[in-house]
Amino acid sequence: MAFRKARCKEKNIPAYYIFKNDELENLVKLKPKTIEELKKLKILDDVKIKCHGEEIIKMINSKE
């Protein structure tokens, strides 16, 4: 949640542009470890993956 808040502030965009609440819940539940896995799980669309995917994966992997 902190990631989304910081990212939207940095990019000056609404939080749901980063990911919606249901997408956040799926990211937390499924914890994709790679961009390929994130794409395969279809949690986020291609635009969100392109814009934020690497940072999301880094964050997930740093929590493990």
Question: How would you describe this structure to a colleague?
Answer:
There is one protein chain. The protein is mainly alpha-helical and 64 residues long. The chain has one domain (2-63): DNA polymerase, domain 1 (Orthogonal Bundle). Helices cover 77% and strands 0% of the residues. It has five helices and no strands. It has helices spanning 2-11, 15-18, 21-30, 35-41, 46-63. The model has no long low-confidence stretch (mean pLDDT 92).
How is the topology of this model organized?
Elements: H1 2-11, H2 15-18, H3 21-30, H4 35-41, H5 46-63
Tag the structure with descriptive keywords.
64 residues, mainly alpha, DNA polymerase, domain 1, 5 helices, 77% helix, globular
Can I get a quick summary?
The chain has helices spanning 2-11, 15-18, 21-30, 35-41, 46-63. The chain has 64 residues and is an all-alpha fold.
Q: What proportion strand?
A: under 5%
Number of strands: 0
CATH architecture: Orthogonal Bundle
Counting helices, strands and paired strands, the structural category is: mainly alpha
Write the H/E string, N to C. HHHHH
Helical proportion, percent range: over 70%
Given the structure, what is the number of helices? Answer: 5
Radius of gyration: 11 Å
Dominant shape = globular
Please tell me the overall pLDDT.
92
The CATH fourth-level homologous superfamily = HRDC domain
Number of domains: 1
Largest sheet features: none
- Under CATH, the topology is which? DNA polymerase, domain 1
